[in-house]
Design a protein that fits this description.
Layout (H helix, E strand, L loop, with lengths): L10 H20 L4 H8 L7 H25 L1 H20 L4 H29 L5 H29 L4 H4 L1 H15 L13 H20 L7 H24 L13 H31 L4 H6 L2 H21 L1 H18 L9 H27 L4 H37 L7 H16 L2 H4 L9 H5 L4
Helix pairs in contact: 1-5, 1-6, 1-8, 3-4, 3-5, 3-9, 3-16, 4-5, 4-8, 6-13, 9-10, 9-16, 11-15, 11-16, 11-17, 13-14, 13-15, 14-15, 14-17, 16-17
Length: 470
């Protein structure tokens, strides 16, 4: 008779998964403060570097739907090892890029590895940890997701100043080697209970739709695509997503069953996540650009200015439980979405003559309401799913989160290009274009209030909010 593993015996696995999550979350934030330095080195405009951000997010979004099937088919151990190798190789390729196109291609390789790291790590924990210890284990591995964004921008700025932007990616190499060696000894090898056929047709349609719409958003600015081709990509992307919808209605084992959307809270939550995160996804790109290009800050100082955003975000997660329990999901999301949009637009008021205290307060308030938005949105999206729908529902939510981040970066780049052209600003004085872009992304976020308005006035048990980690 097999003895169930104790929590203490599973600590090495939890540390390994935490390391993988930390590596991915660090990479998601460390790049942003280095973008102006990358642009200078590669001979590009700092206002047109959004493809470095959105290509990674899009690659992660594209490969998340396949991660669960790959792990069931080839085992969690083999898949996790491959993910670390691909992610580390992608980091090395990023550091060696000589042109923007090479850097974007390398970021896609990184994204493929990153798409597997987090979901496979969580899956290994889910299948290894006893149910009574699962919440404790998930709380443990959620810590790196908070620490990565806290130190990422500052570390990125420091590396740019003391070395070069290449070290933003090279820092992943020793972490990747340590993770690989540890995974060889620690990662368990779990397989799916029954082998299912992969929904390749649905996956191709879904992936093409995401890529086409992302390229259409970005095509206005950096890619220089003509209007007719942008329209073609948009129509083709929408057609592919509608095609997937019709395909999933009849497929025996679709990637994401349409039964998910029969749950009202999930349907509203997933759409609200998509539109709300488009604005939020643009901010990690826009704020460092405003601080460095608009206000002339050094990369290190710009990174330090992001610390209040992360600290306030960590603090506000605790407030989410009390607020939602007292006022309900609908009221909190309606009011907080307006606050997030207003705080985004408030960055249009930033100018070089303002006192630093005002900027710190502004960044902290934005970080607090933005983090509260994520926590409450995630909770309301997953709260009513039954056990059978929990896995595909969570995977779809993860995909939408990354897809919206990519859309946000692409939309921000397009808006910057449009306003730069309209206002006739040069790259050395892009403050007006940045200010106008902040107002627009704030307005985009405000539109999601129309979606959250459809929620019923429900209040959760406090534990339901506590169990959801961003």
């Amino acid at each position: 008779m097999n003895t169930p593993p104790t929590y203490a015996s599973l600590r090495p696995l939890l540390w390994l998964v935490s390391l993988a999550i930390f590596m991915q979350m660090l990479d998601s934030t460390i790049v942003n403060t280095a973008l102006p330095a990358m642009a200078s080195s590669l001979g590009e405009s700092p206002l047109q570097m959004q493809s470095v951000v959105f290509s990674y997010a899009l690659a992660v979004a594209m490969f998340i739907p396949a991660s669960g099937w790959v792990a069931d088919r080839y085992g969690t151990r083999r898949t996790f090892l491959a993910a670390i190798i691909v992610f580390t190789l992608g980091s090395l390729l990023c550091a060696g890029a000589q042109q923007l196109g090479q850097l974007v291609a390398a970021r896609v390789v990184q994204g493929i590895g990153g798409a597997m790291l987090l979901p496979i790590g969580r899956l290994a924990v889910l299948r290894s940890v006893p149910r009574e210890e699962f919440l404790r284990a998930m709380s443990f591995i959620a810590i790196p997701a908070l620490i990565g964004p806290l130190i990422g921008p500052t570390l990125g700025g420091w590396l740019v100043e003391v070395a070069s932007w290449h070290w933003v990616f090279l820092i992943n190499l020793p972490i990747g080697v340590i993770g690989l060696v540890a995974a060889l000894k620690i990662m368990p090898d779990h397989y799916g209970a029954q082998r299912q056929r992969f929904d390749l047709t649905g996956y191709v349609m879904l992936a093409f739709g995401m890529v086409a719409l992302s390229l259409a958003l970005d095509g206005i600015s950096e890619l220089g695509l003509r209007s007719a081709f942008v329209m073609l990509l948009t129509i083709g992307g929408l057609a592919a997503l509608i095609g997937y919808w019709l395909h999933a209605a009849n497929a025996k084992a679709p990637l994401f069953p349409l039964a998910l959307f029969r749950v009202a809270s999930y349907r509203i939550g997933i759409l609200g996540n998509l539109f709300s995160r488009i604005g939020s996804g643009s901010m990690p790109l826009l704020i460092p650009l405003l601080l460095q290009v608009g206000l002339g800050m050094s990369p290190m100082n710009a990174g330090l200015m992001m610390v209040p955003v992360a600290l306030a975000g960590m603090a506000s997660k605790r407030a989410a439980v009390r607020l939602v329990t007292r006022f309900g999901y609908r009221r909190v999301l309606m009011i907080n979405t307006v606050l997030v949009g207003v705080m985004m637009a408030s960055f249009a008021l930033v100018d070089p003559g303002q006192h630093i205290v005002w900027r710190l307060v502004q960044l902290a308030v934005f970080g607090a309401v933005n983090s509260l938005q994520f926590t409450v949105m995630n909770t309301v999206t997953l709260r009513d799913l039954d056990r059978d729908m929990a896995s595909p529902g969570n995977s779809l939510l993860s995909m939408v989160m990354m897809l919206a981040t990519g859309f946000g970066a692409a939309a921000a780049g397009s808006l910057l290009a449009a306003f730069s052209h309209h206002l006739g600003v040069d790259h050395g004085d892009a403050t007006e274009a940045l200010h106008a872009t902040f107002v627009c992304v704030g307005a985009i976020t405000l539109t999601s209030t129309l979606i959250f308005w459809q929620l019923s006035d429900i209040r959760p048990e406090p534990r339901q909010v506590e169990e959801v980690a961003e």
